[in-house]
Every structure is written in C-alpha cells, then in structure tokens.
Design a protein that fits this description.
GO molecular function: histidinol-phosphate transaminase activity; pyridoxal phosphate binding
Structural class: alpha/beta
CATH superfamily of the largest domain: Type I PLP-dependent aspartate aminotransferase-like (Major domain)
Shape: globular
CATH class of the largest domain: Alpha Beta
Keywords: Amino-acid biosynthesis, Aminotransferase, Histidine biosynthesis, Pyridoxal phosphate, Transferase
Subunit structure: Homodimer.
Organism: Buchnera aphidicola (Aphis fabae)
Number of domains: 2
CATH topology of the largest domain: Aspartate Aminotransferase, domain 2
Strand order of the largest sheet: 2-8-7-6-5-3-4
Pathway: Amino-acid biosynthesis; L-histidine biosynthesis; L-histidine from 5-phospho-alpha-D-ribose 1-diphosphate: step 7/9
Strand content: 15-25%
Bound molecules: 4'-deoxy-4'-aminopyridoxal-5'-phosphate
Helix content: 25-40%
CATH architecture of the largest domain: 3-Layer(aba) Sandwich
C-alpha cells in the first residue's frame, strides 16, 4: 500500500513475535490451567469514589505494607505494573542497545529475552542442564563479556525447580562488580524458604522480582515489586513512568498485604501445594505420563506420550493447558497450573479416559 507506515518501524520490531500470553492464545475454557493464576479469588472492596487526581508514582502506604511483609526498608522497594514491568525497567535502565547483553537460562520465562529483543539488546542464552535444570555456572562465567543483567527464575517457570542457593551465591560472587543478578521470585510464596531476600544486605548487585499475581491471587490488578539496594531502586525510579500504579490498584494491593489477608494467602498456598501433590500422585498412575518434573510452584511440568492429542482433546473439553513442546529441552511437555481440587479432579478424570482409548 502506498501510504503504509511499515518502513518507519524499527527493524527489530518489524518481525517481532509478541509474547504468547495465555490470554492471547485464548481458548473456550471453563477450567483454566494455563496461566499459573490462582483458582481461588481473593475478595476485596474499594471505598474510593473519586478518580480526578493522579496517584502517587510510588504509593507510600503500599511500599510500607510490602516492606513489612518482606522485611526490607522502604527505599529497597519499587512498586511496578506487575513483575513484567520490573523486567522491562531493568533493561531500560542498564542496557545500551546494540552494545550490552543479558544472560537468560532457558527453558525459562520468555519475557527476559523478549524485552531484550524489543530494546535491541543481545541475548546470551546459557541453557540449564537438561532434567536437573541446574544453572551452568562455568558457561555463564565464560560469557560475561558485555553482560549487564543475568535473569534467573526461582522457582523456574515452566520447569518448577528451585535453583540451589549455593549456585545463586556462587553466581553473585562471580558477577560482583561486573553484572547485576536478577532473581525472579514470582512464585516464591509456594516455596518461601528458598527466597534470596536475606542476601540483599550482602550483595549490592542482587535484584529480586515479586508479584501479587500468583499466591496473592491478584493477577487482574497488575501489581509487582522490585527489591534491591537503594542505589538500584533510585536508578529505576528515574525510568519508571510518572503514574504506573492506578489508585484502585494501590488500594486493593494494600488490603491484600494486611495481616489477615496474608494469613489467608498462606492458607491458600498450603491448599494449592496439597492439590499439586495430589495431582502428581494421580499422574504417576497414568500410562500416558512419561515424566513428571518435581515442582516447587503452582504448576507442574509433565512429559506425555501423545502430548498433542492430550492437549487438543482437553482443549476441546474446555480444559486449557500450556503447551511447552516448542521450548528447549521440553519436547512433549505440557505445563499444568494447579487449579482447585475440583478442577484437578476433572483434569485427571479426562486424562484417565484418554489413557484408556
Ligand atoms: N515472572 C514469571 C516467572 C512469571 O511466570 C510471570 C507471569 N507469567 C511474571 C514474572 C509476570 O508476573 P506479573 O503478573 O506480576 O507481571
């Protein structure tokens, strides 16, 4: 077309494939086990009636509530539009396009690499070891040239494993003074003893990402946190947009961090962890299952015989899973988010029917 604007688009954006989020992929489901959301809603009301004023850029009371929850100072916390915004801001603040690089360790969450691509920042993929999913420290150390940020997801999405604490400490030691280590703890409440928050006091280059989307059951409000030492938070505050947190979001997020709401969140986590263990035990008895990966989060990765047929048949029945077959080391794997007990039972029922065909 003569008036096309396509020639104006940056060349790295022209052929970019957008993130294939669960919502984008769609489906006609009534059992959604594809986005690692909480199946149990948390119920809050808001009394805010007027919205004519802009919100604070960093709502003080929300930061205070999170600082109490996580045991850090207010100046060590940045509140963002989901943990996803934290991933993006770090690249914006620290990586020069066409000059610097990030490291990520596939199979892992796609947004680290996608944000680097959008910013024209080189991506060095250093895969984890197949099946143990341990990080390859030697290979990372050999590839630190130009690297500003190293993204590690813990527990890792989609594999569900924990990265050994001693491996993260070793990574922090080899990167001190040369690169920042970002630990994405989006799912940490399901395995809270593995958090690296206590290490912030010893490592000036450690950054931790958190979210209210998972254990707090608030994916719809889009609220996350970046935790780091003041120096890093001050830098991120330079590049964040003027009003990233809507008034209503801050109000609900503050309520979700009250003592009582945190207790409810912890009960919900216990329940979901029980559902996960139940689901894994059931899967172990099903002949279509080739391998179940150990999980410390609210999802489980499973390798199936006839994975495509299972995915498709369940999709047709409104049980929506996440296909991981295209990812490095994950041939024939599907990721199943942990739903309510009823949802997990329905899923098992259908898999059992398929295994008898
Ligand atoms: N990190 C990981 C590992 C995730 O799986 C997700 C959500 N899919 C995010 C970050 C983003 O979370 P949020 O909803 O807070 O943007």
């Amino acid at each position: 077309m003569k008036d096309s604007i396509i020639h104006l688009v940056r060349s790295n954006i022209k052929n970019l494939k957008p993130y294939q989020s669960a919502r984008r992929i769609g489906g006609n489901g009534n059992i959604w086990l594809n986005a690692n959301e909480c199946p149990i809603p948390s119920l809050f009301r808001t009394n805010i009636e007027s919205f004519n004023r802009y919100p604070e850029c960093q709502p003080k009371n929300l930061i205070l509530s999170y600082s109490e929850y996580v045991g850090l100072l207010s100046n060590q916390i940045l509140v963002t539009r989901g943990a996803d915004e934290g991933i993006e801001l770090l690249i914006k603040a620290f990586c020069n396009p066409e000059k610097d690089a990030i490291i990520c360790c596939p199979p892992t969450y796609d947004m680290y690499a996608l944000n680097a691509k959008i910013s024209n920042v080189e991506i060095k993929e250093i895969p984890t070891f197949k099946n143990t999913w341990k990080i390859d420290l030697e290979n990372i150390q050999r590839n630190l040239n130009k690297v500003k940020l190293i993204y590690i997801c813990n527990p890792n999405n989609p594999t569900g494993n924990i990265i050994l604490r001693k491996d993260i400490i070793n990574l922090l030691k080899i990167t001190l003074g040369c690169a920042l280590v970002v630990i994405d703890e989006a799912y940490i409440e399901f395995s809270s003893e593995n958090s690296m928050v206590s290490c912030l006091k010893n490592y000036p280059h450690l950054i931790i990402l958190r979210t209210l989307s998972k254990a707090f059951s608030l994916a719809g409000i889009r609220c996350g946190f970046t935790l780091a030492n003041k120096e890093i938070i001050d830098i991120l505050n330079k590049v964040i947009s003027p009003y990233p947190i809507a008034t209503i979001v801050a109000d609900i997020a503050i309520q979700s961090l009250s003592k009582n709401a945190i207790k409810i969140m912890k009960d919900r986590v216990l329940k979901l962890n029980l559902n996960r263990n139940w689901l894994i035990n059931e899967l172990k008895q099903i002949s279509l299952v080739k391998k179940i990966y150990n999980s410390h989060a609210n999802y489980v990765l499973v390798k199936f015989h006839m994975f495509e047929k299972i995915f498709q048949k369940l999709w047709e029945k409104g049980i929506i899973l996440r296909n991981q077959h295209h990812k490095m080391h994950l041939k024939e794997c599907l990721r199943i988010s942990i739903g309510s007990h009823v949802e997990c039972s329905r899923f098992i029922e259908e898999i059992k029917i398929l295994s008898k065909l």
